Fold:
Amino acid sequence: MENGTMPSYFYFTLFKEFVHLRYFIVIVTFLVYFAIVLFNVIILYVVLKERSLHEPMYILITCLSVNDLYGSAGFFPRLIIDILSDTNVISRSACFVQIYIIYTYAISEYTILTLMAYDRYVAICHPLKYHKTMTSKVTTLYMGIASLYAMFPMGLVIFFSARLPLCGTDIARLYCSNWSVVRLSCGVSTSTNNIFGFFVTTTTVFLPAFFILYTYVRILIICQKSSKEFRGKALQTCLPHIISFVNYSIASFCDIALSRYDSDKYKFAAIVFSVEFLVLPPVCNPLIYGLNLPEIRKHILCLFRRSKIAHFPSK
Structure:
């Protein structure tokens, strides 16, 4: 393929190195995916069922759970199939669909965390204006804008990447990523698409991250000037968001850094860190919010108590 072609399939090359561990890896992968689905569905059920939780902060938490389920669905089922497969082949169309799902998940994670930070900023820094500012209509509008913010730029990236003539078909990753496909392209088109992809990544990921940092700096300034009781309440509501933001930022940075770095010496570590942003946030987010926010924790405990009573009724 010296002059470049449009291959119908791509080949994952990493799976052949772990054939002897395939069944163990499948079991671990399935258990992790099952935990992600279970934890996030519990959060969704509790928040949507309890009317007292129909507030912007909790609705945004459900959006985070929906996004985590969406991103996980684009990664885990395909991963299990590839581990059990002997060919490790993915069609061109399926590869770009997976790229779109994983990247829109990644961008949406930041935009939802941005909305959460803004919600806490208004609630703590402008409490008297909160109910007028964060109405259900405004929250819905923000959520729609956040979705378009992720979908439209990635649509453009996929459009340009799908038109590239390729000089190879081997992908040395566990899933399709835009860079893994772009680096297979021929000639100057690689650098051009790479620059465009970098620009999209910068504007869609780092801008929300800077806004989140700004809002929490403002919140810290207000807390320093307030009473000890006020600081305690503010910390209780902000801490889960800060943990989620730091957790996801570290995970996504590892993927961005390692996606363009090939290392045969530390291949296993590179694989683990490259999928961290698809594993840790979906697992940790429901645990962070379920355990740290009293209202959600209370309703989850009530849910399990009712379930226990239903299965073991008193005589």
